[in-house]
Design goal:
By secondary structure, this protein is of the alpha/beta class. The protein folds into three domains: 112 residues, Chitobiase, domain 2, CATH 3.30.379; 331 residues, Glycosidases (TIM Barrel, Alpha-Beta Barrel); 160 residues, Alpha-Beta Complex (Alpha-d-glucuronidase, C-terminal Domain), CATH 3.90.1330. It is built from 20 helices and 18 strands. Bound molecules: alpha-D-glucopyranuronic acid.
Length: 716
């Protein structure tokens, strides 16, 4: 129903005149309201007015069954959202009555009703129009408090997206128990690989005195089903575990708790020595074992619901069990056992590799490292220990095959690590919507159990019936009003949460929802943004790394942002592409190369090993071929590199002009901020195109068939 039709009828001429003027002005007023100043702070929780008086009109109050902080904030959120979208105030009440929206956990419902319901699993929820004690109600029921919160946000999303609310009967369970973000915040307030300003948690060695931004962040996380957050850098500062610091962490946990988000922290493996003053951190030493237990006891006394610890050990210069000849499982288990009495988990990262590899050794291969270090330990981790595996075997590149370790851990809990912060994918200064990439990863069948074992299923723990599993996204939000420095990059945070909850959602569904919630109803705005977002990852890939599996080709020894193909080779980091004047690509075959391909199950290994079946988009990740090698597409490698960079750069030019066509349809603040990023991206894309093409042209001395390159880049 349109807003005009609820205006009271009146008969006087003056009033008629007034109504006429008002009806002429109304659309302008509405557009001014919708084009109100937007900072991006509310992200997808803007609750813009929807001008439809019929929505939920049968309900006029909210009844919250229970007193907990989480339930209370869920009730308040529902009232706030409905007030903002529908312009109606639904009072929060305790007594049941007809026409109530009832919020509660299952055990708080009358037995008769409960018996009629199919109970949701932990963190799951039900939305159902039903009767309760003879009264007509809309029920938002959760298996636990957190489930109620998720149900409330789902209901608000339905309202905001104009989805039908009649005869609601929806039951949703999350895919997995761990749906966490990792924040790489340092205690001094800087953020490793963060592009949205300073830390919202820490400054000058302490937790910030004022935590309203943390509260708002926890609300955003809860709205997409995220239930845990590691607040400090994986390259952990040892002070996090000091007795002076722990009470400060409790302040963060208190804020998170309101929204059902569990605090977790990254800890350093050498802490028994550096913090505890012991002369060892050997995980088998009884004094070390006792220290970890005492430390857990101390933390859980003030943070009883701490999610657990995250550990980066023996990686990029961090201490680890190798110092004492112990295994990663021994290291993980000693800490997991200390957390177990409290229900905490120890998450141990599989990102372990030697960053002093010998470039001259043709068998050396960083891609092998995670599997080589962890596969043989399968089955030796405790039940509350979890191995966190990056999606690819290298490091968050624009394209990588999925990590073979994911299919190899069958008797060990694992979680899949994705990156929301765009470290190697444009650092929030380039548009790069990552959900299409994540979906390819989730859907990839590793044939780990004979077939039909997509990564999303394995990670969620279902394939191998693991007690714990899930998804972790490195988010790195900051103090910038819009959290990530770029309004359009918020889509990655939204999509991560929604896909961690339900990996079966499509990238398109996710971005359509996000766009509508974030920018409103205008069909042109929606169509334009959805299409740009969905195209953005392939476009970025084309003008940076090339669509042949060459990784990102950023400057890997510097900023991980600007073009730096020469930095890939001839160093110990192992992000090699082995480009010389004859050919390019890493030979990772079992036949003649590093043998990495042999880490996959036979059907997958066979597929990558053979040039006949290896897909073009990963060819150079797995094979070293001459520049003249002809792809399945019928084009040579070198010409594909040249063409894709032109194509990608051209497409990137189009983003800013498409965005400009939305002028006046989007609030000015976000319109301008996004435009300036897209214009910058357009220039950067040309720089990328010319740098990469020039570099390959100099190296290969093969002319571009279309004659575009030799003219500008001298052949050295
Ligand atoms: C990347 C990133 C580092 C980070 C590391 C990790 O290499 O550049 O900043 O510490 O990943 O995931 O541990």
């Amino acid at each position: 129903m349109a807003l005009e039709s609820v205006e009271p009828a009146t008969k006087s001429t003056g009033a008629r005149f007034f109504r006429r003027v008002a009806s002429l002005l109304l659309p302008i007023v509405i557009s001014l309201v919708t084009a109100r100043a937007e900072s991006g702070h509310d992200a997808w929780l803007r609750y813009a007015p929807i001008h439809d008086a019929s929505v939920l009109q049968k309900y006029d109050r909210i009844v919250v069954l229970g007193e907990t902080e989480v339930l209370q904030s869920a009730g308040t959120e529902l009232a706030r959202g409905l007030q903002s979208m529908l312009g109606r105030t639904l009072p929060l009440q305790k007594e049941m009555s007809s026409g109530a929206i009832v919020l509660g956990i299952l055990p708080s419902l009358p037995k008769q009703l409960r018996n009629r319901l199919l109970a949701p699993a932990t963190d799951g929820y039900l939305l159902k129009t039903t009767t309760m004690q003879g009264r007509r109600v809309l029920l938002v029921a959760g298996a636990n408090d957190r489930g109620v919160t998720y149900g409330v946000f789902a209901l608000l999303r339905h309202v905001a997206l104009h989805q039908t609310l009649d005869a609601l009967d929806e039951r949703q369970n999350p895919s997995a128990s761990i749906r966490w973000t990792n924040e790489w915040d340092n205690l001094d307030g800087s953020i490793e690989r963060g592009y949205g300003g300073r830390s919202i948690f820490f400054s000058a060695g302490n937790v910030l005195p004022e935590l309203s931004k943390v509260r708002d962040y926890a609300r955003l996380l809860a709205s997409v089903g995220i239930n845990g957050c590691v607040v400090n850098n994986v390259n952990a500062d040892t002070r996090i575990l000091t007795s002076e610091f722990i009470p400060q962490l409790a302040r963060l946990a208190n804020v998170f708790r309101t929204w059902g988000v569990r605090l977790a922290i990254a800890v350093d493996f050498a802490s028994p020595k550096t913090v505890g003053g012991l002369n060892t951190f050997d995980p088998q030493d009884p004094a070390v074992i006792a220290w970890w237990q005492r430390k857990s006891d101390e933390i859980y006394r003030v943070i009883p619901d701490l999610g657990g610890f995250l550990m980066k050990a023996d990686s990029e210069g961090r201490s680890g069990p190798s110092a004492y000849g112990r295994t990663h499982a021994q290291a993980a288990n000693v800490i997991a056992r200390a957390l177990k009495p409290y229900g905490g988990v120890l998450i141990y990262r599989a990102f372990v590799y030697n960053h002093h590899l010998d470039w001259n050794d043709l068998k050396a291969d960083r891609a092998r490292a995670a599997y080589d270090n962890f596969a043989s330990l399968d089955g030796s981790f405790d039940d509350n220990a979890v191995v966190q595996i990056k999606y690819g075997p290298i490091d968050f590149q624009v394209r990588e095959p999925v990590s073979p370790l994911i299919g190899a851990l069958r008797h060990t809990n694992q979680v899949l690590e994705l990156q929301i912060t765009q470290e190697y994918t444009g650092q929030q200064r380039h548009l790069c919507f990552l959900a299409p990439m994540w979906k390819e990863i989730f859907d990839f069948d590793l044939h780990a159990n004979g077939g039909n074992t997509p990564v999303g299923e394995i990670a969620s723990g279902r394939t191998f019936h693991r007690p714990v599993g899930g998804f972790v996204g490195v988010a790195d939000v900051g103090q910038d009003e819009n959290w990530l420095g770029f309004d359009l990059a918020q889509a990655n945070l939204y999509a991560f949460g929604r896909l961690a909850w339900n990996p079966a959602l499509s990238a398109r569904q996710t971005i359509e929802q996000w766009t509508h919630l974030t920018f409103g109803d205008d069909p042109k705005v929606n169509k334009t943004i959805v299409e740009m977002q969905l195209e953005s990852w392939p476009v970025y890939e084309k003008y940076t790394g090339s669509p042949l599996g060459l990784q990102s080709l950023t400057n890997i020894v510097g900023d991980h942002f600007s073009p730096g193909p020469e930095s890939a080779d001839r160093n110990g980091w192992g992000q090699w592409i082995r480009a010389d004047h004859l050919g390019v690509g890493m030979d990772r075959t079992s036949g003649t190369g590093t043998g990495f391909i042999g880490q996959y199950s036979p059907p997958v290994a066979g597929y990558y090993e053979s040039l006949r079946t290896c897909p073009d988009n990963l060819l150079l990740f797995f094979h070293h071929v001459p520049y003249t090698y002809v792809l399945h597409s019928g084009k040579s490698v070198i010409q594909t590199i040249f063409d894709s960079h032109y194509e990608g750069a051209d497409e990137a030019q189009g983003f800013s002009s498409r965005w400009k066509s939305l002028e006046g349809r989007i609030d000015d603040t976000r319109f301008r901020a996004v435009l300036s990023r897209l214009e910058y991206q357009a220039e950067q894309a040309k720089l990328w195109r010319d740098t990469i093409n020039g570099w390959f042209f100099s190296l290969s001395a093969i002319a571009d068939a279309k004659g575009r390159i030799g003219a500008t880049v001298p052949h050295s």
